[in-house]
Design a protein that fits this description.
Blueprint lengths: L11 E3 L4 E3 L1 H18 L8 E5 L4 H12 L3 E8 L11 H16 L3 E5 H5 L3 H7 L8 H18 L4 E3 L4 H13 L3 H6 L3 E2 L7 E3 L7 H11 L15 H15 L3 H17 L10 E2 L6 E2 L6 H10 L1
Amino acid sequence: MKCKKCGERASIKMPQHNMALCGDHFLAWVPEYTQRTIEKYRMFTREEKILVAVSGGKDSLALWDVLHRLGYQADGIYINLGIIDPQNDLAYSAKSKAFCSQFADQNGLQLHIVDIKEKYGETIAEINQRSAHGRQKPCAICGLVKRHIMNQIAHDKGYDVLATGHNLDDEAAALFGNTLNWTVEMLRHQSPLLPAVSGFVRKAKPLCRFYERETAAYALMRGISYVYEECPYAAGARSIQYKKLLNQLEKRSPGTKMNFYVHFLKAQKELFGEEQTAIPREEHCPVCGQPTLSGQACAFCRMTGAVKA
């Protein structure tokens, strides 16, 4: 198969985009397509400060690389959750942190690091053991912690937008799960862009129209080192099951995931009759000042307060 741009041998085939590209043209196409996505959803401008949430994985580091090459003011944030894989004693978080730091150093970029153990006294797993969810995986607590800290750092340090590396596979899987369960509030607010509201900074997903294999190919071709292992707590997650099912459909009918997601975004306003925003919070936590549903301490502060006690 030949490259659509130059006629040389193609390095990657992308049937959902109806094209194949050689390595050089693929590396040029990814930033171009990202820029079109940014403009399409009016995510941010080059005059604004962007905080990129990085995990050490291919998607988030690829996003940071692309935004840097496009000339955006993009800094990174890494949250060290203290995760260790009990199966092989792999210090998963430490390894992920090393890849983020390496990328920042190589490109002369600023990386904010928040260490949960240092700041709050315990790792995610330890917090989970002290909570009502101690018998379950710490995924819910992990999500709460990351959302809280990312928004707090972005707000306190004057960033205009928080960018995450969610790809099309992530978004399609989330949409699939929310549709199966008819989680209306999640469907109402699933969007490539959530405007700032009630103390929440603007959130953007510039890679939302890239397949996972495309972000992986970009990272490999660009020579970006990243952690290959999945989070040890991800095994058995429903999102992974949904991705497998969608991949089966994609194999039979290329473009299925793209059509599923893009057509939903087109129908979303008609379905819900409003622009997509973050779920509003009218009150603020008296401890940390972040938005909450009541005037009492937010879930994050209640959780970390129990740890400190």
